[in-house]
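Troubleshooting log. The previous structure file for this entry was overwritten by mistake, so regenerating from the original sequence record. Sequence copied from the archived sheet and checked twice against the printout by T.R.
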Amino acid sequence: MNDKVDKLVIFLAKRDGIDKLVKTFQYVSKLVVWRAEGAHPNVAHRAKQWEVAAGLSRKAFRSGRFLTGFNALRRSPGSTPTFQLLAVLANAGEMVYFFFDHFLWLSRIGVLDAHLARKMSFISAFGESFGYIFFIISDFIVIREGIKEEHKLLHSTENTKDVTKSIRKIRVDRVMRLMAVAANVADLIIGVADIEPNPFCNHAVTLGISGLVSAWAGWYRNWPS
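Regenerated output below.
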């Protein structure tokens, strides 16, 4: 029990840990609004207030987050020209997302003209979606290469202990990357709902489930090992 409490404390001490927790609140409340708005309007109203507050809190907490894109490119530019290009495109999209998200937040709380909100939302969502596409492609390429390497190791005649350790490492990395893909696909759906509103992506259930998939996949990836 103490170990779990310690891990929870470490998780919530991270910026991403808090973000995933508040994101869970945001999208659970969205689903509550959808479920209760007909029969329990008072509950739906309270849940909507919780959803809006959680969304605005996340935007405030992400202030300066666009700078992480620069740091990511500096620390890990990619091992090949292909990965370098994918890293530049993915992080550029994410930087646009987080940068314009600042203006979206300011317009929604009344500091900037409220009419800017729609434009800032579109630019932010477009950058987000653009970046996620290349993050997903990068992860699938690495997963494919990992499967090939695992196949070679399984048929290797080298030291069994070293081979087992390498295979375990590849499998752990694959799980983490699949979690990243799940989160990015879910966030891509949310982004598309802002860029090109449509009945499927903009449905409360689609948005709610996508938000929770993204939050919980991120929760899994950030949970202390």
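Residues 2-222 form one domain. Archived copy saved in two places this time.
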